[in-house]
Amino acid sequence: MIELQHTTKIHDESRQGEALDMLPTGKSKGRKLYIESYGCQMNFSDSEIVASILLDNGFETTKDYKEADVVFINTCSIRENAEQRVRNRLKEFESAKAKNPGLVVGVLGCMAERLKSKFLEEEKLVDVVVGPDAYRDLPNLIDKVDDGNKAVNVLLSREETYADISPVRLNSNGISAFISIMRGCDNMCSFCVVPFTRGRERSRDCHSVVKEAQDLFNAGYREVTLLGQNVDSYKYTKPVAEDETQGQMINFAQLLAMVAEVSPELRVRFSTSHPKDITDEVLYTMSRYENICKYIHLPVQSGSSRVLELMNRTYDRQWYMDRVNAIRRIIPTCGISTDVITGFCTETEEEHQETLSMMDYVKYDFAYMFAYSERPGTLAAKRYEDDVPEDVKKRRLTEVVNKQQEHSLYRLQNFVGKVQKVLIEGFSKRSDQDYCGRNDQNSMVVFPIDERFKPGQYVHVLAERCTSATLIGRIVE
Ligand code: SAH
Ligand code: SF4
Ligand code: F3S
């Protein structure tokens, strides 16, 4: 998110090249792992699972790929430029491999799943290709490479949720963490590669989600973000014979309440909500718990009903507006952000105007905006011609971005003069004299340090002014 600041964004191939940063464990055999993640927050979360699996197998980690024995790159396929970025990065690893022929180079994640063994032909330095459901097999695959083979496991699973694996928190501020509550996606949005790279949707055991939240809280964390491609379709049926609630089905609203009950001091966020599935029950649950943040990421993609149908989003313009109306009615203070695609197949100028008018209607707090990028194998690639010229896509994108800038500023200005409850996350990026944190609606707030308060504590901040991305204020009693 163009903005590492908005950490709830789960689809952000602009986050790139973040290496993990953690202390090695004692039981290390001493081999060093370097892992770099691209793409959405799901991938970053998966890298924490991968690190956990390898630490259990005696690895240490390093932040410098030049001293690594194993280099992993966890990849994203969502748009062509996301893949290009990974290929460019792999080129940079070539010299490390030349210096150390024993170096194991692995490609993980969505690109691995999309390209499978073809990756080994295309990029000669790659030794191992592993899809998102095969990470338990990594130690075994590394052994194979050590024996002089190339190794591939891209099997997708209908069950794997890594529920029993305790993620190693990487690059963590010790205050906010992500909890994966489901994997895969059963929607078939025609532009989207995710159902092919991540497989069928499955929900994780609700008890393991709550336990992870509780463990994080006990370790001092004060904010969790529940992650899934479509959190509103979370559905977990307790196995028969587990307890007296056997066979009971838990939906997303119920899971949200269970996590919120961990502690009123634990903020709960979630991403992503699908407009076709977000229920009033979820909205009422949000309004019932003070600690469930009043912020919803509700990707619209297009404001035109005809384009939405081609996109196979299964809602139309009116339905989307009705969902926004329901949010405003049930949670009047709720922040709303979105994703927009410009120049989807056959999109006309009038239809593009409908996207702009939808933006005017909602006045989003924040948006992630993209020019359509055709992905091989998707329904749109098979059915429709990618016929909007690149310069038109880009011009429409610029119009959407400009409009969003106005709206972001408008929303932030509305907070000026008001007191915000802020969870202190740490020092501001720009100055060690200032703290930063977010308000309920996920807007970044910067304010001078007050020695009485530490990161991880809540403070009330009077917003005195704003830039287009940040509120600036001071702590008030
Ligand atoms: N599961 C979420 C988001 C999925 S991917 C949802 O359903 O909303 C994140 C965002 O990337 C999408 O919301 C969409 O705006 C964008 N995106 C996905 N595929 C794309 C493509 N082929 N070209 C351009 N943008 C794309
Ligand atoms: Fe892709 Fe649609 Fe699934 Fe989101 S809901 S991951 S856009 S297929
Ligand atoms: Fe995420 Fe990119 Fe895969 S957005 S699910 S890492 S294709």
From TrEMBL:
Catalyzes the methylthiolation of N6-(dimethylallyl)adenosine (i(6)A), leading to the formation of 2-methylthio-N6-(dimethylallyl)adenosine (ms(2)i(6)A) at position 37 in tRNAs that read codons beginning with uridine. It catalyses: N(6)-dimethylallyladenosine(37) in tRNA + (sulfur carrier)-SH + AH2 + 2 S-adenosyl-L-methionine = 2-methylsulfanyl-N(6)-dimethylallyladenosine(37) in tRNA + (sulfur carrier)-H + 5'-deoxyadenosine + L-methionine + A + S-adenosyl-L-homocysteine + 2 H(+). It comes from Sphingobacterium gobiense. This is tRNA-2-methylthio-N(6)-dimethylallyladenosine synthase. Monomer. Its EC number is 2.8.4.3. [4Fe-4S] cluster 2 binds at C185, C189, C192. SMART domains: Elp3 (SM00729).
